[in-house]
UniProtKB/TrEMBL annotation:
UniProt key word Methyltransferase: no
UniProt-recorded name of the protein: Signal peptidase I
InterPro entries, per the entry: LexA/Signal_pep-like_sf, Pept_S26A_signal_pept_1, Pept_S26A_signal_pept_1_CS, Peptidase_S26
Membrane-spanning parts: 24-43
The UniProt record lists the keyword DNA damage: no
Protein EC: 3.4.21.89
Similarity remark: Belongs to the peptidase S26 family.
Gene Ontology MF terms in the entry: serine-type endopeptidase activity; signal peptidase activity
Gene label: lepB
Localization per Swiss-Prot or TrEMBL: Membrane
């Protein structure tokens, strides 16, 4: 009985060899598929473009970000050009993806949930709408500052799906269910002071006897003397790590060193952007509850500013507010039950970071992965050898 009846009868004929072009093509297709699967489900490379996480992470640090730590997110916009994010290379406006197919948010199992003080990569929550000529700025902040008509007249404005929004990296300071507050620039979680990252920075007032600070010593400590000041012959403002502040305070020429605290809430556009009820600054903020999946909160005119974007944008409801009355999906509402967990992200360079203090909560479906390892770093024209293969804490 011929068990191989389904095979073509070509015994005795020489096997046709693939051409070199065909072999290269097959290898390229395999490499693209393998690399796409790896960067989607295991890890992906990112570059630090801004100083918002200094000195923990520096501009031109190249990172591996683990997708499996929190569980890889299934692509929500699957039709995209490989190895691109939201824009085609060498173009300014051309999308690198198609929204013809859209999948709902799903995530495979991971090793853990997002934890407090993890360094996390996520999609920018206010990145659903983008002014292309000013992509490094929040569209909503621009509208608050200049008005919608002015922004639309001067920019090409587009929308982006969740997984094609700009990638941000910050430290998770609060998880779902926490109550967060900031007092004099220090973060408190559930009434307890949060640990201060050892390489974090914030601005300090430095008062001297009137003698100038030694610029060579400042350079040795990686302090930029021209960043901010001097304000007069005896007063400076520097961005310092905790250890640099302690060292500077010990200098005989320094008479006083104190953290800078912004005293003017009307000059700062901080979340929830409701100056009628909340006079907060980036240094004095809260207390504020971070929404947790399944929890129901009361909503009214005094607190709807915290939750309006969650209800209408992140969780897809129709929210209407008329004469102080709130309606959700056409029905009067005085409470709301959250469908997702939310997180509060802040940069380690606290006074030089646009973070949750300015644009609010990060939904769980925006979480990309956990920052894991620095594989390359360069600055001042050379490789920073001491930073290579350093894990991120």
């Amino acid at each position: 009985m011929n068990l191989a009846f389904w095979k073509k009868n070509n015994e005795g004929q020489p096997k046709k060899k693939k051409s070199a072009v065909r072999e290269w093509f097959d290898a390229a297709i395999f490499a693209i598929i393998a690399a796409t699967l790896i960067r989607t489900f295991i890890f992906e490379a990112y570059t630090i473009p801004t100083p918002s996480m200094e000195k923990t992470l520096l501009v031109n640090d190249f990172l591996f970000v683990s997708k499996i730590s929190y569980g890889p997110r299934i692509p929500m916009t699957p039709l995209a050009v490989p190895f691109t994010h939201h824009t085609l290379p060498f173009t300014k406006y051309s999308k690198a993806y198609s929204e013809a197919v859209h999948w709902k948010y799903r995530r495979l199992p991971g090793f853990s949930d997002v934890k407090r003080y993890d360094v996390v990569v996520f999609n920018f929550p206010e990145g659903d709408t983008v002014a292309l000529e000013n992509q490094d700025q929040s569209y909503y902040q621009m509208v608050r500052a200049f008005g919608r008509d002015a922004v639309w007249e001067q920019n090409h404005v587009i929308s982006r799906p969740v997984d094609k929004r700009e990638n941000y990296i910050k430290r998770c300071m609060g998880v779902a269910g926490d109550t967060l507050s900031i007092k004099e620039g220090v973060v408190f979680i559930n009434g307890q002071q949060a640990p201060i990252p050892s390489e974090s920075e914030r601005r300090y007032w430095v008062t001297t006897t009137g003698d100038a600070l030694n610029p060579s010593r400042l350079d040795e400590m990686d302090i930029d003397p021209g960043t901010d000041g001097p304000y007069d012959s005896a007063k400076y403002r520097y961005n310092l790590t905790p250890s640099a502040a302690a060292t500077l305070k010990s200098w005989p020429v320094v008479t006083n060193l104190a953290p800078f605290v912004n005293p003017a809430p009307e000059e700062v556009a901080v979340f929830p952007h409701d100056t009628a009820h909340y006079h907060w600054t980036e240094h004095n903020f809260g207390p504020m509850y971070i929404p947790k999946k399944g929890v129901t909160v009361k909503i009214d005119a005094t607190n709807i500013a915290f939750y309006d974007r969650i209800i209408s944008v992140y969780e897809g409801n129709k929210l209407e507010i008329k004469n102080g009355q709130i309606a959700i999906n056409g029905k009067p509402a005085d409470s709301y039950t959250f469908k997702m967990n939310y997180y509060w992200m802040m940069g380690d360079n606290r006074d030089n970071s646009l973070d949750s203090r300015y644009w609010g909560f990060v939904p769980e479906d925006h979480i990309v992965g956990k920052a894991w390892l620095i594989w390359m770093s360069y600055g001042k024209g050379s490789i920073r050898w001491s930073r290579l293969f350093r894990t991120i804490k």
